[in-house]
Amino acid sequence: MKNKKLMTIFLIVISIFLSSMSTLAQEEASEASSSQEIEYTLPFPGILPDHPLYFLKLFRDKVLDFLVQDPIKRIELDLLMADKRLNMGSFLMEKGKPVLAEATVFKGEKYFLKITEELQVVKGQNRGMDQSLLSKIKEASLKHEEIILELLERAPDEQKVGLNNSLELIKEIQEKLD
Q1: Cα–Cα distance, 77 to 72 (Å, whole number)
Q2: 165 and 126, same structural domain?
Q3: How many CB atoms lie within 10 A of CB 121?
């Protein structure tokens, strides 16, 4: 009787140990596969450039760009615009509009280039820069590179030149950020 209890406890402990080892192995495998993908969420793009009311969105963006004077707020706005344009390009590629996707992605990378210019302004003013914003910008640049590489795989040959230009631009930006 006593041996049966000990055997039962022993089997329970072994089964718990083995199940936890299997769970740990699965977590390590999923972490290894997710380390390839950059953990940065792009914002929803809203109206796409192929929509008839897109000009209203452009007008709103120009007004916001004009009204925001603080360099740090401008950096945040430019990052939002760059992220949205990149995501628009991805949506447009899925919709089968690679020409518009290529142009939209490049416009997004121009917004990213403005971020590096604004960072220089902040440094010139000897203002403190929030390190979390700087790390977010660096992480976003890696996500931009990742998405552009994915778009390059799906793009027709005619659009690969433009997407390669966007890729080169984001790599130049990454060098400036370091």
Answers
A1: 9
A2: yes
A3: 13
**Is 43 inside any structural domain?**
no
Tokens of 77: 């706005």
pTM of the model: 0.76
Q: Mean pLDDT by 10-residue block, N- to C-terminus, for the chain (178 residues)?
A: 63 55 43 62 94 96 94 94 96 95 95 92 83 92 94 91 93 89
Coil, helix or strand at residue 94? helix
Instruction: Decide if 1 is inside a domain.
Output: yes
Q: How far apart are CA 178 and CA 40, in angstroms?
A: 19
Domain that holds residue 15: 1-36
* Cβ contact 173:112 at 8 Å: yes
Give the Cα separation of 46 and 161 in Å (integer).
Answer: 27
Nearest to 78 by CA among 133, 154, 35: 133
**What's the confidence (pLDDT) of residue 35?**
47
Domain count of the chain? 2
Is the CB of residue 92 less than 8 Å from the CB of residue 159? no
